[in-house]
Amino acid sequence: MSASHPVPGRIICFGEMLLRLSAPAGRLLPQASHLELCTGGAEANVAVSLARLGHRASMVTVLPDSALGDIARDALRTHGVDTAAVLNGPGRMGLYFLTPGAVLRPSEIVYDRAGSAFATADPARYDWKAILDGATWLHVSGISPAVGELPARAVLEAMRTARALGVKVSYDGNYRASLWAARGEDGAATLRSLMAEADLAFAGERDFALVLGRPELAEGGREQEAVEAAFAAFPQLAHVAYTRRRQIGVQQHELEGVLHARGACAVAGPFDLHEIVDRIGTGDAFAAGVLDGLMRGRGLEESARFGLAAAAMKHSIAGDFNTASRAQIEAVASGSLDVRR
Amino acid sequence: MSASHPVPGRIICFGEMLLRLSAPAGRLLPQASHLELCTGGAEANVAVSLARLGHRASMVTVLPDSALGDIARDALRTHGVDTAAVLNGPGRMGLYFLTPGAVLRPSEIVYDRAGSAFATADPARYDWKAILDGATWLHVSGISPAVGELPARAVLEAMRTARALGVKVSYDGNYRASLWAARGEDGAATLRSLMAEADLAFAGERDFALVLGRPELAEGGREQEAVEAAFAAFPQLAHVAYTRRRQIGVQQHELEGVLHARGACAVAGPFDLHEIVDRIGTGDAFAAGVLDGLMRGRGLEESARFGLAAAAMKHSIAGDFNTASRAQIEAVASGSLDVRR
Amino acid sequence: MSASHPVPGRIICFGEMLLRLSAPAGRLLPQASHLELCTGGAEANVAVSLARLGHRASMVTVLPDSALGDIARDALRTHGVDTAAVLNGPGRMGLYFLTPGAVLRPSEIVYDRAGSAFATADPARYDWKAILDGATWLHVSGISPAVGELPARAVLEAMRTARALGVKVSYDGNYRASLWAARGEDGAATLRSLMAEADLAFAGERDFALVLGRPELAEGGREQEAVEAAFAAFPQLAHVAYTRRRQIGVQQHELEGVLHARGACAVAGPFDLHEIVDRIGTGDAFAAGVLDGLMRGRGLEESARFGLAAAAMKHSIAGDFNTASRAQIEAVASGSLDVRR
Amino acid sequence: MSASHPVPGRIICFGEMLLRLSAPAGRLLPQASHLELCTGGAEANVAVSLARLGHRASMVTVLPDSALGDIARDALRTHGVDTAAVLNGPGRMGLYFLTPGAVLRPSEIVYDRAGSAFATADPARYDWKAILDGATWLHVSGISPAVGELPARAVLEAMRTARALGVKVSYDGNYRASLWAARGEDGAATLRSLMAEADLAFAGERDFALVLGRPELAEGGREQEAVEAAFAAFPQLAHVAYTRRRQIGVQQHELEGVLHARGACAVAGPFDLHEIVDRIGTGDAFAAGVLDGLMRGRGLEESARFGLAAAAMKHSIAGDFNTASRAQIEAVASGSLDVRR
Amino acid sequence: MSASHPVPGRIICFGEMLLRLSAPAGRLLPQASHLELCTGGAEANVAVSLARLGHRASMVTVLPDSALGDIARDALRTHGVDTAAVLNGPGRMGLYFLTPGAVLRPSEIVYDRAGSAFATADPARYDWKAILDGATWLHVSGISPAVGELPARAVLEAMRTARALGVKVSYDGNYRASLWAARGEDGAATLRSLMAEADLAFAGERDFALVLGRPELAEGGREQEAVEAAFAAFPQLAHVAYTRRRQIGVQQHELEGVLHARGACAVAGPFDLHEIVDRIGTGDAFAAGVLDGLMRGRGLEESARFGLAAAAMKHSIAGDFNTASRAQIEAVASGSLDVRR
Amino acid sequence: MSASHPVPGRIICFGEMLLRLSAPAGRLLPQASHLELCTGGAEANVAVSLARLGHRASMVTVLPDSALGDIARDALRTHGVDTAAVLNGPGRMGLYFLTPGAVLRPSEIVYDRAGSAFATADPARYDWKAILDGATWLHVSGISPAVGELPARAVLEAMRTARALGVKVSYDGNYRASLWAARGEDGAATLRSLMAEADLAFAGERDFALVLGRPELAEGGREQEAVEAAFAAFPQLAHVAYTRRRQIGVQQHELEGVLHARGACAVAGPFDLHEIVDRIGTGDAFAAGVLDGLMRGRGLEESARFGLAAAAMKHSIAGDFNTASRAQIEAVASGSLDVRR
Predict the structure, then answer these.
(1) Does D178 touch chain C (CB under 8 A)?
(2) Which one of A42, A290, B259, C284 is at 20 to 30 Å from A67 when CA atoms are compared?
(3) Interface of A with D in 104-123 (CB under 8 A)
(4) Measured between CB atoms, does C28 come within 8 Å of chain D?
(5) Alpha helices in B170-281 (DSSP H)
(6) Contact C74 E79 (CB under 8 A)
(7) Are B303 and C13 in contact (CB under 8 A)?
(8) Nearest chain F CA: its distance from A195 CA (Å)
(9) Where are the alpha helices (DSSP H) in B196-299?
(10) How far apart are CA C312 and CA C331, in angstroms?
């Protein structure tokens, strides 16, 4: 908020943005007389978190030139994300409809993103050299290639340009089975090529099992082996991070944060999360928290701890974005639950 | 409500349904933290009105098999519309985003209906002989052909089957310039072929100018001439109806209802409409009111009067549907403004 | 608000209280997913207005000993009305359901007050001598006798006790045709006996036509004659007051306030009322405004003017109560429309 | 949703419908500026659940011919319940006011159903032979006789006609002590005569203790004995079902479902239910789930399991109705808590 | 509610009132498009609770003569608190902004009370002899002296006048570190002088450590010793009460109530509080519950038990006030969680 | 929205920002259970409008380092205003409470801005040379000096630095009598010194009468003379602009826009404004519209016309900001009222 934090780096986030339309808590979608509106998208969520934490974060995406596209762009601006590289193009605004779960009823998402401006944008529209100039990190995810062939090409080109320019690459696996199924494949080859460009991967044993073609790694209990196999297969990979989540009820989870370097591992938590407000975007909040640590040069333990606190914080905030300040996340990390006056 | 009204007929309404997502009154879309949700679609609006007025009304459409499609179907059921002929199919739910106008700022609609289940449905899915069996009227509109080639074929087949079966055909011009522009044509030929099947047309001088290829008829002051030209060109056409609207402000209109038979014309109104709540669907409410008159065998004057009262009533009700009862519409027609206790 | 106003008198208001459940603006009752809740009742409305204007006002009624009854009692207390004489008794809380009108659609009220604690209360429960001790005015209305035989007896006893004690009596005709119809009579005899006890009557030509058995007085244009006939028939009657309302639309009225003394008459207004928020209780607001003038010893003109301003003010406030302060009503009377900073 | 489910049967549900007016969560009734409105009634809740699960369900009741009555009827139609046998009649709409509980504060219900159209309807208005023609099941409850002598006669006649026609009878005890107290008796004789007509009873040890005149069965630990005594006393009784509920807090329960046949018993659960949204109607959701199993010819285990999942699901949905689809209930039964995309 | 409770005493509560502006649940303050408004203040909270429990409670404070001040005064009246001694004066209305916590994110309060009418009021404005005439108790807190020097003098004068008149004095420590820090001291001397006037102190080991200058008493495990030291140091002190709270999550606490007399101690609870709605004002609810016991002459055990039940109840009610009735609090004390019909 | 507009200039806006807390429409402040929150301030309103119109706009102000201050800053960012020169400082966030008027009841504003961070900021904190570097315009108002001596010095220094740097100065008189009264003077001398630095003044005859010490100019009918006197007295003054407003009701106005150059004058309108949504900030919207014209080098007529259309548009938008796009304002200017699809 104030100018007292030195800003450690500049991160470019690239991916699709979506508007979320949610039924009110405790109601099924057909019971709703109104839907709550917010903006999201995995990579935008990371951008917002990092901007709130004092980093210079820029978003790269394509939005329709309409009131809906403006909503998404303005939401980034509100939180201090630079939108100079947000393009307008033909096509729809991607939407998703959320029915928040309760008790033992899981949350349900109906995607309505086909034909979006992002999915149909020509990869040549992104001038990656200009965009990445002066950046220290690039953040992308495995959702973009799942959305379509054009974004798949764009994301790979972004990663390769980053590496050529010495910009570090953060990659969140974010496997979306239903999107790949709609494309008639499992995406393993494409995702492997992306993973090969990452310095930091937010990915777990199932992601590695897929891209390494070793399904047995996903069968349980082989998490450490999967990480080691990933480090072996992807020589540029320096860090791997993920959360472990145990669900007692739809609104009661236990959460740990894990951050691996080659030959070292930090585990933070577990945190007991009760009366969860909104779990959408908690993985992105974790990613942003870990990135904050690495961008500031903090150690494994502290980065894992802060990433987990950021993820825990997000469970208490409605919407896709973790808009909490550093001080608020530190308060969660400290464990104090008293009213702060 | 009670069983005291003899039910004069059975009407089949065919067309696309849409979910409407509206910004709250007095707010632009990007100011909205939630959007109000309701169901609409020109032909469905007519079906709901007529069901509320005691007619047997059935809807024919294609909806996605999703929570969004269910919302549309259930909305019909709520108001007593028969949904046995509502089909499920692949594709999206058509949406539109409404920013209600105020003062001198016009209302704005952003359509998001491309790729809908209705627009992409194979016309062969509709078994028109079975659907129209026992019906007295079919109601369709010029929106369906504007939506795509497949619906264009379906609506024409429906109209021709109706005529073959002796079912009367009601057709609402509802010209949508932007949809036709997106298809690269003005639709005149298609719309002419539809108009040729209609017993009753909700259409005005601009519609007739278009389908008759006589643009001069739309230049003002030639309304009567246009209607006569239409009666001349379309021998089956028995009635033509439309409203005349003068707008003093976005929420202040003056409205007349006009109903022509060959050689006769009734004009109802004008009504002064202040503090308008919602003008979407007022044309459909008028159509339903006129249809009610004709289905009950009422005269021109009474049908025009009831149609205008129904349209006026709809201006006072939020949402696309005119869900008012016959008694409530009669109260508007009577001109009494006192609190009814 | 402050203690700077000398308090001119103490008024006792007696009548039934009701909870109002309203559909949101622009929606029919069946469209409502929630109903707005407020408290009302003609006599309670007068009590609240006068308490807000700095008078000592006490309410006498019977409420059920339930959360619903508590809502009504607490609403009085909020506005400074004394509730020491509010009794609890068996029976229901009276309710009414309001669908606010719009454009040309009139507001609709569905009463659900049968079997209420007030309607079924034994008149012997009210100790009128104690209640009226120290009071300067009693205010009652013609609704109470319409509600049932027991309240009819109670209200007459209250009026007669008041007169015996030298307490002035204010009576609002408030004719409710549907309630009398449900009792199988028109109430003329009962209402005449009440009118005979009044010092001040809020009543117009139709009320007088009824109680005087002279229906021709209500046929229009004979307002002055009706008032003179009332003064002739009811020797104790000192003042007659009413509003004249011309309705251009459901939310656009023109309003005048008329106050007669024997041989003198003041007419205030007209006021043009646009975009009316809530017209329920505007007659009670007028009554309170006129009573304020008479209780303070103001002249006819000023009392009529203040009564009309109070009525006009109420059209801008949601709910049954006119909770405006004297300063706010004076601002309306002054005609200034600028933002007050 | 789609036509793919064969519809196994047709069920007639008979009972009173009520409108529910609820304070918002976390507020006492007098704190509420608005009340949430929904429709309920034990038997209607069952009808809606079964219609949502693909059965043909019809409601039989009497509603007032008013906007309030229309709300109740339309709510049934929304969910696909047939309303051809819903009658209009004189009398009020039954209401109840709900203050939802929280933490250790129990939920509170204030009934306001005296004088309802249902309670005062002449039993001769129901033509049971016509209504039950073609049905496979009748569902009634012990609330109807508690509401009044007229409904008591109607429900018994319905049950006996059903048995005469070979329609199976489902009976939910639903003992309402306060309603019987208001009638000056405990209802044991009447309820025994109803229980004697049931093929399936939703009833537990306290119900059986009452109707068998054996209060000791309700003293705890004698559940199995009570069920056996019921099977012995009521020869037609084929199945007995109930839930066992342990309450840790107002919004934290543990729930089991029990279904007995003669000589066999299935117990499903327990399920841990946290952050409960709405527990009203959960017993009816259980009843509908068990009925679905029996109507589809499923075994004891599967019927108990599905009934319990349906009950658990209802705890996550606001309102009286369980409007969940079969797929959503199966998801609860499967135990998966992940977001469904 | 009814007049059946004998009223045991009359209590005067003195302190600052505040308006609370809260973000909706699950949202950070900058996410809020509206803020929920309610009235509070530690001493006013006690007054409201006791008035709801049937005591005569009067509030003494200074409010601005504005719509904001009126809100605070009217909120007292709603709940039956006497406001005859509420003064108007220059200065602002004190405000506070609340962001309710969730999951592991603590609630946050931003005070905006500087320059309030209360803080800047001349102590000479309070005529304590007149105010305390006929009272049995005075209730004050340690917040008043923290707010400023003028209120510090006023509260001490009130306490001393009370003691001189034989009115018992209840004092709630309510230590506010941030307010004292803003005044540049820790307040120990001032608070000691207040504690010296109290018959009943709501205070725990940290309060006693401060005023006794024995910081080691606050180091944990020395609660009993601290209470004994307080009884030794303050001869007039007859009772000491406090709660013990263990926080599992922001919305899950375990709570005990402790009440000491000289030589005796009662501990009530613990109660497990889940899904907490609002914890603000729970300490005041406890204080009012204990005061109710002492004012009614109940024993230590019963007073502690009722105080704890009142505190537990408050956790289920939105806003600062515990507006529950005696019957509702008794229901919590009884432990029954079933729906009350 | 898109990059197609060349950006004509860069404007610096300096002044206090306020949070607005509004009662819902149709309710008095004490009736509100929640208050709507938005951000405003005369100069910030201009900055937001101009940023929405495609200009580079920067805000200079001082905000508290709190969640409230962040709300104000983030609101600027949402709309694309540069916040690099927004400072944090000690002191409160300025607030104002708005009761929106209706019918004949004027809107009421209660300011609560004493002691704000802006009002108490040392003028030395603003580095005007750096801030104004590269700017083409500076916009300030007469509110800043009314707020206090420190802002008065700051605004004068800003204006003088601007003139020294060749940055044009826009000045809005915005006379606030109540703020000056609180400072014990009428501000004429101070405001004259500000007016002397302006190239463009938003000011009318009353402003000029004050600063010229010629009260007779404000007596009506001497508007032209007042403007000429201003041009004579202030040699640098190139343009004078203001609106003429006639109020028929609180929500019905007639509005003209007037723009003078030396020797030339353009009058736009009148526009009839009905059902006004929000009139706060309409003067600022006019100012921004006129500034847009001048910054783009448009003529008097076009600048006046666009300014008036912008002002008219603002009447249809809730909140202080006119967030409409150029296309939306042009639509108002065009006079078309039809739904835009």
Answers:
(1) no
(2) A42
(3) 104-109, 111
(4) yes
(5) 177-183, 188-195, 205-211, 223-233
(6) yes
(7) no
(8) 34
(9) 205-211, 223-233, 282-295
(10) 11
Distances in Å between the Cα of A27 and the Cα atoms of D278, D316, D331 are 10, 8, 17
- Tell me, what's the ipTM? 0.93
CB contact under 8 A, A102 and D339: no
Q: Which residue has the tokens 């519209």?
A: F289
Name which of F28, F35, F110 is nearest E35 (Cβ-Cβ). F35
Minimal Cβ distance to A34: which of B35, B70, B99: B35
Domain E10-239 top-level CATH class: alpha beta
Contact residues, chain A, for D331 at CB < 8 Å: 105-106
* Of the candidates A321, D248, F66, A253, the residue with the CA atom closest to the CA atom of residue E104: A253
Tell me which residue in D274, D277, D339 faces A249 most closely, judged by beta carbons: D274
User: By CA distance, what is C253's nearest residue in B?
Assistant: B337
Asked if the C-beta of F25 comes within 8 angstroms of chain C's C-beta atoms, the answer is yes
- The shortest C-alpha distance from D143 to chain A (Å) reads 27
CA distances from C218 to C194, C215, C237, C243, C260 (A): 20, 6, 20, 15, 18
Structural Rg of chain E based on CA atoms: 19
E-state strands within chain C: 10-14, 18-22, 34-40, 56-63, 86-88, 95-99, 108-112, 137-141, 168-172, 200-202, 239-249, 252-261, 264-273
Domain ranges of chain E: 10-239, 240-333
Give the number of C-alpha atoms closer than 13 A to the C-alpha of residue D117, restricted to the C-beta side.
24
Burial of B297 (0-12, 13-18, 19+ CB in 10 A): exposed
Which token pair is E182? 């803003």
Give the pLDDT of chain C (341 residues) as one tens digit per residue.
333 445 568 999 999 999 999 999 999 999 999 999 999 999 999 999 999 999 999 999 999 999 999 999 999 999 999 999 999 999 999 999 999 999 999 999 999 999 999 999 999 999 999 999 999 999 999 999 999 999 999 999 999 999 999 999 999 999 999 899 988 999 999 999 999 999 999 999 999 999 999 999 999 889 999 999 999 999 999 999 999 999 999 999 999 999 999 999 999 999 999 999 999 999 999 999 999 999 999 999 999 999 999 999 999 999 999 999 999 999 999 999 999 98
In angstroms, rounded to a whole number, what is the distance separating the alpha carbons of residues D172 and E8? 48
DSSP assignment string, E107-129: -EEEEE-TTBTTTT--GGG--HH
Q: Which two tokens stand for residue B271?
A: 């009504």
- Which residues of C does the annotation mark as catalytic? 284
Inter-chain Cβ pairs, chain A and chain E, closer than 8 A:
84
Q: CA angle, corner C121, sides to C117 and C122, nearest 5?
A: 170
User: For chain E, what percentages of helix, strand and coil (3-state, to nearest 5) are there?
Assistant: 40, 25, 35
The pTM of the full predicted model, rounded to 2 decimals, is: 0.95
Continuous H helices in A53-148: 67-78, 128-132, 143-147
Give C146 to chain F, closest Cα distance, Å: 31
Interface test with B, best of F79, F250, F275 (most B CBs within 10 A): F275
- For residues B268 and B256, the answer to whether their CB atoms sit within 8 Å is yes
Residue E84 in contact with partner chain C when CB distance is under 8 A = no
Bridge partner list, F290: none
C neighbour chains, 3+ CB pairs within 8 Å: B, D, E, F
Q: CB-based contact (8 Å) between A36 and chain F? A: no
List, in order, residues 6 or more apart from B138 with CB less than 8 Å away: B11, B12, B13, B14, B132, B158, B159, B162, B167, B168, B169, B170
d(CA C105, CA C102): 5
DSSP per position, F191-232: HHHHHTT-SEEE--HHHHHHHTT-GGGGSSS-HHHHHHHHHH
Alpha-carbon dihedral of residues D324, D330, D333, D334, nearest 10 degrees? -140
Report CB contact under 8 Å: B273, C103: yes
